[in-house]
Structure formats: C-alpha cells, structure tokens
Amino acid sequence: MATVATPPKAADLAFELLKVHEGFRDHLYDDKTGLRIGRLPSGGWPTFGYGFNLAHWPATEEECALILRSRIFTLISQIAARQPLYSKLTPKRQAVLIDMAYQTGIDGLMNFRQMFRYIRLMDYSRASEEILNSDSGRRFVSRYKTLAQWMLN
Q: Which residues does 43 contact at the CB level (< 8 Å), separation at least 6?
C-alpha cells in the first residue's frame, strides 16, 4: 500500500482522540456489552497473532498503542485512496475521518456520502450536521458530538 503524505499532527490527534473514545482494557471484551470474554465454549482461551493468550498474559497499554498507531496509518492510506480530498483537509478534520473509519470500518466511513459531498463543497457546517444526524451519531452521542465539533474547526 502506498504511503500517504499526512501531517504527523493528524495521526497524533487521531491517536489521542481514539484513546479517549475507545478506552483501554488489558483483556478481551464484547464491544457491544463491555463484558469480559473468558474461556471459550471449547474450553480454550481467546488467542490472537503469535499465540497471544490475553487471558494469561494481558496486553500492556504500550503494546496496544503500537497496534493502534499501526491501524491509524493503515486507515490513513485507505481513506486517502478512496477520498482524494483527504490530503487537503486540516489535521483535525483528517483525525475526524480516521476516528470514524476506526469505529465504522472504511466501508462504513464511505457510506457517509452526504458528509463527503459537503466536505467537497467546503461546507463544514453541513458536514458536521451529517455526522450528528447519522445512525452512529444518534447511537454514540458524545463521541459524534466531539467529531462534529472538530469538523467545524
């Protein structure tokens, strides 16, 4: 995947924003309920990557920060490839798109068609309204209020 010229500030802003919006847990949990995931019905333990068994050896915040930064840079490349206007946005507006893509997935972000239409028109007030009036905006009110504010600035 090609490297995209993104001000480091955008990645740093997205990193801090996502840390607040997602929160840190050193264990596996159900993202819908927030409940800890323990032993599986098979009797095994949730494991990922190179045999990382989080039940017996929880991930540290530093390890998770490395993964988060890696995913932010992957999202930056994906967003820029699908929305050329990305590189013309302020770092705060880029961070908004990164945060939204992190939560909804890149395809979920691309479904904000009206928001992108207003961004192309540089009508950030209406783009902000689209963020608030979305399904995600109604479901995750606090998060999307912050994102809508950042889109305005």
A: none
Structure tokens at 24: 């840190």
Cβ partners under 8 Å of residue 144, min gap 6: 131, 132, 134, 136, 137
In the chain (153 residues long), the average pLDDT of successive 10-residue segments reads: 60 94 86 83 84 84 94 96 96 97 97 98 98 96 97 93
The one-letter amino acid at 86: Y
Is the overall model pTM greater than 0.85, yes or no? yes
- DSSP class of residue 122 equals T
Angle, vertex CA 10, rays to CA 23 and CA 30, nearest 5: 25
Contact (Cβ atoms closer than 8 angstroms) between residue 87 and residue 3: no
